[in-house]
Amino acid sequence: MEHIELLRFITSGSVDDGKSTLIGRLLHDSKSIFEDQLNAIEHTTRRRGIEGIDLSLLTDGLQAEREQGITIDVAYRYFATPKRKFIIADTPGHEQYTRNMVTGASTANLAIILIDARRGVLTQTKRHAYLASLVGIPHLVVAVNKMDLVGYSREVFESIMAEFHDFAAKLGLANIIPIPMSALVGDNVVERGNSMPWYEGETLMSVLENIEIDHDINTEDFRFPVQWVCKWGDFRGYMGRIESGSIMVGDEVAILPSGRTTKIREISTYDGPLIEAVAPQSVTLLLEDEIDISRGDMIVKAGNLPQLDKQFEAMLCWLADEPLDMQRRYLIKHATKTARIAFSSIDYRVNVNTLEKETGQDALSMNDIAKIGFKVQQALASDSYAKNRATGSFILIDEATNNTVAAGMMT
Amino acid sequence: MGNLQAFHKKLDHLDILESEAIHIMREVAAECSNPALLFSGGKDSIVLLRLAEKAFRPAKFPFPLLHIDTGHNFPEVIYFRNKRALELGERLVVSSMEDSIRQKRVILKHPGQSRNAFQSITLLDAIAEHRFDACIGGARRDEEKARAKERIFSFRDEFGQWDPKNQRPELWDLYNARVHPGENIRVFPISNWTEMDVWQYIAREQLEIPNIYFAHKRQVIRRGNSLVPVSDLVAPLDGEKVEEISVRFRTVGDMTCTCPVESSASTYDEIINETAVTRITERGATRMDDQTSEASMELRKKEGYF
Ligand SMILES: Nc1nc2c(ncn2[C@@H]2O[C@H](COP(=O)(O)OP(=O)(O)O)[C@@H](O)[C@H]2O)c(=O)[nH]1
User: Fold this and answer.
1) A233 to chain B: which residues are within 8 Å by CB?
2) Cβ–Cβ below 8 Å for B174 and A395
3) Full set of structural domains in chain A with CATH
4) B43-56 vs B13-31: helix axis angle to the nearest 10?
């Protein structure tokens, strides 16, 4: 079998920018739509009194959403080309759905931000760009859509991109790939079309298929949160997934939080032992010395330690309906460790439309993003999110309701 | 670094999906007090078993296998189910719909009626009886519209219900498996796999599967676009013709509503080739029950279905 890579991306745009049409186009032109799905869409299109097929119906989700005519949640879609398999996190663009975008973005290699060429950079565009930078999506495509409605004008495209770049510079966003397109007609989605000969860049599909993603995971710092200790007869192995970096038999490792050191005796898998393993492989590590290790501990290389601390600062996105209540008990889940926390400060709240920092806040409600300080009951081994997505991210759980109430990124 | 990159290149999409699924299984084992793995003998749950071996060997699985037996199973699949559990040396719990029918928890309109929709009742009974707090299942997001928004750790309330508006946000690979007594989590380690990925993985791992997944001669009746298999439970109606043709199953479920597709594939590679060119979705081709309305799967899930 040929080697197929996996790329996860997210699409965001305001309502009616053409997100569903674009996804429909990608699925359709990559031949990922099945006949029965097409039939169902045709049927629905006809029932709504429209001729032809409306590709945006393909991504229509739940009954409740169809009734309200809006999407309310992240949906995942799949397609493949001979080069790559793709997972799309399809997130709705409504004002109130910051949390959905953060959710979809958390695992994405790439984000597509849609702009309607007639409307240009909107407040919502800025919000999407800010969220992409907050969640640290490695690659960003800015798709200026509906170019057919502005006469495929190069000037329109370039002036929109100039404005976008200005804003992006403030966010420190790099790796921006601008593409002028018409999702409806198909220009620069999968096929180039003949309408924009002035555009010399790649089509969207070409970007998706070829962009380099090997370095989207941190390959430098070995981090292995212990998930499960396997004791079976004489066998004692530490099971988990390598979240970043790599490890070899014989490497000297430290166990955190205890700080004890030992060496890797064996890297065991069901398919046999390995000499070396890399992120994101799931493996079982056997150590030279018998050390007391349990779930929640982290195995790292002795010469490359994360920060070990109880006091943290982080950017927090509040996800729950019920607002933050400083009196309640919240748990942090960070890597494989769960512990109780206490908030120490809300430094400021970010106005996601203006990027202004609003100080003097003592509450957070759904979709708020804030810089906070907190203390954890036990020391956590972590890295800054900018350095390591896996060991810099966490969620907060309300101990009374068990709901996931916030997502955090350590600064 | 040079070395590492060379190695890195070797992880393909199946390696990454596999590792993700192993990680999910280990999270369930660690965070839930009494999980079970739903094993039907079908291809998706066969993949789950291999993933569980990869996650937990050399030890035994930290959960039993659970089968919701509708009594409408293909005999080849039941044979395979028993054989596989025995080979693995793992405990198999069978909860039978016949019991639910006897206890009048399930009331059928007629004996030949499809039992798919009632699986939820027997499943919820099994969860209550054995006090399972998590059930690992082989559902995939590519299967059906209502599944596209399913979480990997999907919360169900004390009535076993899935409320699409009340799902926990799921970020990064940080799963929240916490439940109160009586509540339940369904966990789908192969959420991100497609039908193609499953077949490629089965081929790569050389997994044994029930023989009805390969092309074989079978008596069928053509009804609409479906080929309905003739069995003890399904006989031709007046005027219907029985044909014997070469078919294989893409899914195996309730015998009365699971249809095969025409096929000549007798090896994994031939199945993969057919999968690559098929123009009909897995459910569209094979499940009469989900064709009834656009929202039928969604409704069943709300009632407690996987
Ligand atoms: N002319 C033109 N119309 C488009 C284009 N892309 C989308 N549309 C139309 O814009 C409307 C909104 O598109 P839709 O995909 O539903 O937007 P969404 O809300 O972002 O998912 C629909 O009527 C589409 O047909 C385009 O490139 N050109």
Assistant:
1) 58
2) yes
3) 6-216 (3.40.50.300), 223-301 (2.40.30.10), 307-410 (2.40.30.10)
4) 70
